[in-house]
Amino acid sequence: KTISSFISTSPASFSRAFVASASPPTVKLLIDGKLVESKTKSFVELLNPATQEVVSLVPNCTPNEFQAAVDNSQDAFGKWRSTSIMTRSRVMFKLQDLIKENMDELAANIVREQGKTFADAKGDVFRGLEVVEAACGMPTLQMGEHVENVSTGIDTYTIRQPLGVVAGICPFNFPAMIPLWMFPVAVTTGNTMVMKPSEKDPGAAMMLADLALQAGLPPGVLNLVHGTHDVVNMILDEPKIKAISFVGSDQAGKYIYARGTANGKRVQSNMGAKNHAVIMPDANPEATISALTGAAFGAAGQRCMAISAAVFVAGSEHMMEKLVEKAKTLQVNEGMQAGADLGPVITAASKERIGSLVQGGINAGAECILDGRDLVVPGYEKGNFVGPTILKDVTQDMECYKEEIFGPVLVCLKADDLDDAIAKVNANAYGNGTAIFTNSGAAARKFQADIDVGQVGINVPIPVPVPCFSFTGSRGSFLGDTNFYGKSGVNFYTQIKTVTAQWRPSDISSGGRAANLDKV
Ligand code: NAD
Q: Which ligand 1 atom sits nearest the alpha carbon of residue 253?
């Protein structure tokens, strides 16, 4: 069995099933290590964003199927939590090998379902792989603390215990990385997980789950269910689920946080963003323009850490023109095509929304100095392509500034000086990421100190922390208090227990239990 066949009903390889779009394969549920055909009559059609061909049908799983997944995860928990932590982390050692071996196949699936370029899709897998690598160190990460003699003869220590069944709800934009932010940390700390991948591109999560099984993860430790709002509501209301990791849009994230926490669950909710680059006049122009181009338009702007707003501090505006020139050189194409820099956006509705936000900006007085809205890619005329688009003279009251556009669109603002730029960034509702481009250590240090954003880059456009740290978006981009991956991720998936213990030396010298009984 190849990992491809794991996704589809077709006995043929996934690619052949994909081509035979007359009868698209249904995506299976994964329960107790087995693929389960949903009995639902309700499916989401998964369309290739570059071609509109039907890749697969994603089931809206039934309440009974969801319950079977949760009950099975609950059953698996007892044995898994008492499996040694060395054994659990060894599964991660094996998994990281298998992910590397299957990198191309995973990436090809991401291109087909999500649209990003092959190179970018490999990056998607790679950033998730780093979390698997970090989870290999769980015996150290999950260590408690110990203080001897908190009172004479009494010691206090902490242990970090798994919570039980936890759930993950994923977005479409990183179909490999986000599932890998969740399940490696959740299961290696001893939990079992029910995961709901995005209904727009669940293939990579299915493949990763298969690789985890091959790596030795016992059946039931990771179960996958599919669907949209209804299955999310089942997760939110299910008493056996103790914690929920969510990544996605504001609308869903606020709702999931409110209903999940009202039901007594731990919830970590990573949401939308408007990430600003602040360009100082002393910035290295070439490096800055290159960084901005990649960060604004790469992955068709569908990254939660994409630079979507550029604040040009007085004296740096000349870089805007060069940015337009550089952005024009980017090749927009189907993701497997050689030289493609960015692929399509996820759906036709998304393309339409992007277009209308750009038009709204123009109507409100912004100038469109690069317009990619009408782009047609030869051979892929039906694709949801949007070319790099740049709006200048954007002001803070415009919808195109306030809303997360989530497409290859950069809105440009002006600032009088660094203080003005910082004030503008801090006035924005979001706090996911930001970056300053400067050659001044003093400006960078002031920016780092005064900016009210959770992840800061200094001459680094997309400052996503590697997994020995945590992903620390703030303000409107995050709800909860314990972040994804790193030490924080371990804390999220574990309950701390503090033990205070007294053992009297006199009990040893007088013969242990028998002596104690003598005293009673
Ligand atoms: P989305 O919110 O539409 O979907 C995310 C998940 O929530 C999906 O599994 C979906 O089925 C479910 N869902 C959607 N609407 C729901 C609702 N009303 N009720 C219950 N469940 C619902 O997000 P998306 O479009 O898939 O992903 C893009 C968004 O994710 C962007 O806003 C992006 O910034 C954000 N994102 C954030 C981070 C981060 O770490 N901050 C990372 C990646 C993506």
A: 2
